[in-house]
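Example (one chain per record):
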Amino acid sequence: MRNFDLTPLYRATVGFDQIADLMDRALSSDVGQNTYPPYNIEKTADDAWRISIAVAGFAENDLAIEVKDRSLQVTARKAEDDTERKFLHRGIATRAFERRFHLADHVRVTGASHENGMLHIDLVREVPEALKPRRIKIASAGKTAANLVEAKSVN
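Predicted structure:
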């Protein structure tokens, strides 16, 4: 696999650090990356998503969800059983895991639920009012000349 050095991109651009970081993460991830536990990402509205993670065998107190630095981290640690159980076949994996999702700007977690062996995490994008597009009214040339005030020097 090829390795790309993105250092020139960092030196030649200002304010595009997030794009370079995203490319760096995408290019550095292994093809054989861990796929446990399986998950779905679905779009529930124009600016809303839901991440569903299969967490069969885990109770709510075994799971932890944390958002830090635009990164959503889901971890699971199974409490040790005090009873000695003997499995003839163990097909349900309850091994500890950590899954990270990188969130875009202004995306926040609105809630999480655990039902039927699935952990559902709801996300929504809330763009601040200052960043939303706004329409500027165009005045005709005759009206603007009448509304101009004579500028005076401050100094």
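Caption: The helical segments are 7-12, 17-28, 141-147.
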